[in-house]
Amino acid sequence: PAFPPVSTTWHSNDDDVYRAPPIDRSLLPTAPRAAREPNIDRSRLPKSPPYTAFLGNLPYDVTEESIKDFFRGLNISAVRLPREPTNPERLKGFGYAEFEDIDSLFQALSLNEESLGNRRIRVDVADQAQDK
């Protein structure tokens, strides 16, 4: 037949005709509740760099890589995981993630209480004063 079966015409190869809009993850029912509308007071965010998040309740086997993976998709510039001075193998259970822009920090905060490893980790605005 001159026409291909109906089912193939609308998702044929000229995919410029029909491009699905990028998925707004906040509309997905599976989105963490925080992603829907982070109840974060934007006035608590730093006005200028560094845009640093405090990470608490980290598993002791966490690595910089796993932190970067946790925040994948965000512009993360640095991860700092303090270690016990007496036992450099052992992490203190908290750390800091530094982001390149305010929006990445804001997004990161919406991951508060998401699970990393087997723990729900705390993501909060790092206290700028103590971070110097």
Automatic annotation (TrEMBL):
Residues 1-11 have a biased composition (Polar residues). PROSITE patterns: RRM. GO terms for molecular function: RNA binding; translation initiation factor activity. Pfam families: RRM_1. Transmembrane segments: none annotated. SMART domains: RRM (SM00360). The keyword Cytoplasm does not apply. GO terms for cellular component: cytosol. Residues 1-49 are annotated as: Disordered. InterPro entries: EIF-4B_RRM (IPR033107), Nucleotide-bd_a/b_plait_sf (IPR012677), RBD_domain_sf (IPR035979), RRM_dom (IPR000504). Keywords: Acetylation, Initiation factor, Isopeptide bond, Phosphoprotein, Protein biosynthesis, RNA-binding, Ubl conjugation. Residues 51-128 form the RRM domain. Residues 34-44 have a biased composition (Basic and acidic residues). Required for the binding of mRNA to ribosomes. Functions in close association with EIF4-F and EIF4-A. Binds near the 5'-terminal cap of mRNA in presence of EIF-4F and ATP. Promotes the ATPase activity and the ATP-dependent RNA unwinding activity of both EIF4-A and EIF4-F. Self-associates and interacts with EIF3 p170 subunit. This is Eukaryotic translation initiation factor 4B. It comes from Furnarius figulus. The gene is Eif4b.
